[in-house]
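Weekly modeling sync, notes
Attendees: AB, CL, MP (scribe)

Item 1: holo prediction request
CL wants a bound-state model with phosphoenolpyruvate before deciding which constructs to order. AB pointed out that an apo prediction alone won't tell us much about the pocket. Agreed to run with the ligand included and paste results into these notes for async review.

Input as submitted:
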Amino acid sequence: MARTRLVAGNWKMHGSRETIRALLDAIVAVVDAAGAQCAICPPFPYLAQVAERLRGTAIAWGAQNVAEHAQGAYTGEVSAAMLAEFGCRYVIVGHSERRQLYGETDAQVAAKFAAARKAGLTPILCVGETLAERDAGRTTEVVARQLGAVAFTAGVVAYEPVWAIGTGRNATPEQAQEVHAFLRERLPRDTPILYGGSVKPQNAAAIFAMPDVDGGLIGGASLVAADFLAILRAAAGAKR
Ligand code: PEP
């Protein structure tokens, strides 16, 4: 059976009601023809707006973060069950910005992953090395540690080299393939493995053509409808 091809947009902390309305209108108008699965992960306050607009379409939505706890005195946190109650399908866990800026540890990421699974969400687990780690030849050691911390039974993995996120410097298709193949050996057979890090319409087709790349987690380019749709088409049409 062919693995699911998925393109997920991580909008990070961008957007307003108006820009999101326009972006969704542009995406919804053509996405059903695109062929690969598509998901959008907006900031928390816009989840309801996005869920409402996407109802009845083939586009799923997800959150960018989730609490590792089920409920309780955790001011500012949002539980997986709360997200699930509103029809959320995906949740990003372990994004490098969460790890680096908010000090999320492997153990916390593992707890978030488990909480998401327990609530029936599909976690998108992000792993990836810094430039210093790559230069030191430690890429596989780092991603193996990040993956190994998680009790991975099912979900999606996104290989996101930290040095490629938001920098305009994407991993080459060969660099991505090498790490994806390494991850593939350590994951259940049908796990979609996405690449993330400066994916643009210009480089998407070559990256998605790699045998172990099943789609992308897209940051900056997911905020531009034409770019996101072009990337989605590249994923749907990739030959490998
Ligand atoms: C991301 O935020 O996960 C990401 C891959 O960002 P960008 O596409 O902008 O590099």
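Recorded for review: The beta strands are 6-10, 37-41, 59-63, 90-93, 122-127, 156-159, 193-196, 215-218.
Action items: CL to compare against the apo run; MP to circulate these notes.
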